[in-house]
Amino acid sequence: ITVGFTELNSVEHYIIHQVSGVNLNSLPESDQAKEPLPQYAIDSEMQWQFQSPEQLGRGVNEVLVEPELVQALARVNQEIEANPNLADEVIHKLRAILLSVNQVGLVKANEEFFLWLTGEKTMPFGENNRHVPVSLIDFDNLTNNNYIVTNQFRIHHRETKIPDVVMMINGIPVVV
User: Of 32, 43, 141, 170, which sits with the fewest C-beta atoms within 10 Å of its C-beta?
Assistant: First the structure.
């Protein structure tokens, strides 16, 4: 049986192969959603790993891959590493930004999220509730981050959108 070219097997799978080294065209579809596939270093700093949407462990209404983000917050913030429950407070703030888009507008919400992404936001996690910067991404040690590429990343809010390929750092979609 020969399969013709489709957007999935020619564009999406090509992009995934280029960034992760995983050739989804050579795997039966039934195997693609199972165990994580091998990683491939595109440079010495970053390792992109392919995960199917089913492997991400998120609901269709969730933009963030919260289990990944919780782990990353503890990995890159010593205060959160010492008290992992603090990660929930950060995720609560990030969710609030995502939910505020309809009230404040997309540009304002993106500007606020950008401040979080670049480590410019603080939380009272220090000694005596001193505010300390919170990092979502470790820009000093890029290998300390988790890089995931996925496809058919279904998102539902009012209507369902299904971006073809999404690249995430620490559970945060950064490239669509």
Answer: 43
CA 55 to chain centre: 13
Q: Whole-model pTM above 0.85?
A: no
Q: Say how far apart CA 50 and CA 21 lie, in whole Å.
A: 9
Q: 104 or 37: whose pLDDT is higher?
A: 104
128 — alpha (psi -120 to 50), left (phi > 0) or beta?
left
Q: How would you class 43 by CB atoms within 10 Å of its CB: exposed for 0-12, middle for 13-18, buried for 19 or more?
A: exposed
Taking the CA atoms of the chain, what radius of gyration do you get in angstroms?
18
Q: Say which residues have a Cβ less than 8 Å from residue 136's Cβ, sequence separation at least 6.
A: 69, 72, 73, 76, 90, 116, 117, 119, 170, 172
